[in-house]
Amino acid sequence: MAPCPLVHPLTVLGQHHVSPAPAPPAGQPWSLPLTFFDLVFWDFPPVQRLFFYDRADLGHDCAGLPPPGASSAQEERVSPEVAYTDGDSVRLTVAVSGDDFEDLACDHPRDTARLRPLLPPLPTHGNGSSLLSQDVLAIQKAVVDPTPPLFDRNVVRDGAGLREAFIRDHQDLAAAGDRRLDGWDLRRRPGVIVFATFRFTDELLRRLGRHVESETSARCSPYALACGAAWAGIVRARGGGDDTGGDAQFGFVTGCKPRTSPPIPSNYFGNCLGLCRVEAERSRLTAANAAAAIWSVIEGLSTEQGRALRNAREWVRGAREYAAARAVTVAGSPKLGVYAAAHFGAPWGRPRKVEIVSVERTGALALAESGRDGEGGIEVGLALPRGEMDVFRAFYRDLPLRLDPAAYRCREGKS
Predict the structure, then answer these.
(1) Distance between CA atoms of residues 276 and 253, nearest Å
(2) For the domain 10-414, what is the CATH code?
(3) What is the DSSP string of 31-66?
(4) Contact yes or no for 8/98 (Cβ under 8 A)
């Protein structure tokens, strides 16, 4: 049995509440109704990031904190919204941990129990689900976008009545006690869960792209290549048990602003993400055909008008099917630029490391741009049981050799 990790408690030095200054201008809405895009993720686990900075004191650099607001929806009213009340604030906690910064900010596997104390507790509402997290990505973008944000919810056309349909879906699922989203939660599985980061450099992605094209004729994007390789590696790491036979499933989100009719303005403040699903035969899944399958769906979004929203009515219930099948999904995106210093103000500089720790609860790939060492590309963070992580690390280590069949056969012959 693996030894329990040494979890270092936090010593809280102080708590501060940061409010907007000045107060919101007259005419700006103090509440925003949630659209059907928001309601897809209504009861998903919150996206929680950790930013590791090489600074001795961050206490005076609080500019860029997300604006405060509370999400609310009483069961008897069909009007979920994000509301701001005068005096609302974002809580900033200053604390000290005795853990090793250098070790926590590295790529090698670390026990997730060491990272959890660094996450601030989130308030819960209603059935106990944290409801404030789903707008975090949009908030981060709005903070740095020079174009003033557009709050008008009327730009999200909903002729199909998806908002009301999604609310009914959530109510029905809650009444039935549906807990299928828990199928993603690795904390419910026995054993130690570890988190590690894998870098798909520009050079590795170029080699992988040539390999995929030679195997499948598909000319994939770097996103499809990195996701495909990671998906294939996770399926291999899971091995037997409930993952044998049938199809492996992969889910990702796509931006829908330019894909609606009429298009939603680029400076719209809010979620505009649609769900996409990919299936492939589990027993034959390789990095090449996994990437090609993902790229086929991405290409279809560009060539077929309206495809992104074609199956939108099934998104809420379909997410439960994803979870029950333990589909591999994606959190984050290389396009967000989380390593760019401008995101949270120049005084903070570039973060040493960014982690989406919440993938422990969703089993998703934590994607970000990779350029910390000048090699570019995409980095993929994973939370897996320790045994599965060992298998995935071996898969990743051997991936460059697999792109050179002669070298790989030579190595296999020596082993």
Answers:
(1) 6
(2) 3.30.559.10
(3) EEE--HHHHTTTTSPPP-EEEE---S--TT--TTPP
(4) yes
Q: What is the pLDDT along the chain (415 residues), one digit of tens a residue?
A: 455 556 778 888 888 887 776 666 665 657 889 999 999 998 888 888 998 888 766 555 544 455 555 555 544 445 788 887 777 777 888 888 889 999 999 999 999 999 988 888 776 544 434 333 322 223 333 334 457 889 899 999 999 999 999 999 999 999 999 988 888 888 887 789 999 999 999 999 999 999 999 999 999 999 999 999 999 999 999 985 444 568 999 999 999 999 998 899 999 989 999 999 999 999 889 999 999 999 999 999 987 777 889 899 999 999 999 888 899 999 999 998 888 765 555 567 788 899 999 999 888 999 999 867 777 899 999 999 999 999 999 999 999 988 876 654 555 555 5
Q: Which long-range contacts (CB under 8 A, 24 or more apart) does 140-145 make?
A: 140/66, 140/336, 140/343, 141/336, 142/269, 143/64, 143/66, 143/343, 143/344, 144/64, 144/342, 144/343, 145/267
> Tokens 């209603």 sit at which residue?
126
User: Of the candidates 35, 305, 49, which has an alpha carbon nearest to the alpha carbon of residue 150?
Assistant: 35
